[in-house]
Amino acid sequence: MTKENLTACHNRIRPFIHNTPVLSSRLINKLVGAQLFFKCENFQKTGAYKMRGATNAIMQLTDAQKAKGVVTHSSGNFAQALSFAAQSLGVKATIVMPSNSPTVKKNAVSEYGGHIIECEPTIEARQNAADSIVNDTGATFIHPSNDLEVILGQGTACIELLNEQPNLDAVFCPVGGGGLIAGSALAAHYFGNNCNVFGGEPFEADDAYRSLQSGKIETNETANTIADGLRTQLGHHNFPIILKHVKHIIRVTENEIIEAMRYVWERMKIIIEPSSAVALAAVIKEKDQFKNKKVGIIISGGNVDVNSLPF
Description:
- This protein is of the alpha/beta class.
- The protein has helices at 3-13, 26-32, 50-59, 63-68, 77-88, 103-111, 123-137, 148-164, 179-191, 207-214, 238-245, 254-268, 274-285, and strands at residues 22-23, 35-40, 70-73, 93-98, 115-119, 140-141, 170-174, 196-202, 246-252, 294-299.
- Helix 5 (77-88) packs parallel to helix 6 and helix 9 (179-191) crosses helix 11 (238-245).
- The chain starts with a helix and ends in a 12-residue tail after the last strand.
């Protein structure tokens, strides 16, 4: 995973993605005591950064593989991204979604042309259903976060952030499956200027925090968090990158996530989903160590069900 890999990926997917804006908030800066720069992937196509990795992964397939289609399992954002990217590139996409996925995300997958197969809301059920589709159809499985081409694609958001703000002291990402933080850590390593990468993670799904402590991939017995996009775990492709390049992961409570989400909605007037708020919540929680620093925050997405807001 070299600087050249990242640059080639960015150039490859650039025609298919938005270079999303970087915003700031004087009031939130004052609250934290630092300069924060929000890379707003809630304005990305399909409403989340995952369009980047999905597009790159499909573009790297052979014509024979594309003809047989792609399959993934996802609670929502990667499901939408892969569906839209596949539609844009003329490829069939089948999406395994947990039965408790937000309705707004299921509707979007259908609108983007993805064929939904529902399953029980467990990691094992998701993977078993996807494996069955691969065996039946010959489609290529693309993992939402534990795929090297996906990781490279997700890292391009951080490249764009660093192109605009080259002297960031730190970049924060929410941590779910690990694709975004692994890609961002690579981008910060190759394109940053002594820029450390931090993760934010719910206490209710803190496998990444525990994995960094133990040096091996840990699992979650339950994932009872409002941050529905983070109810998953690290994989063998992204974990070594995270172990090598991520400085620290900060855990936050459900109330801290909700408060951070409220700050952004009220102060910045933009819609973000709970998973995105986890990164800001982590900065606020440890604000003393970032005092007077320049901090980038990847706002991962804005696909929220406005009929069931936490405030």
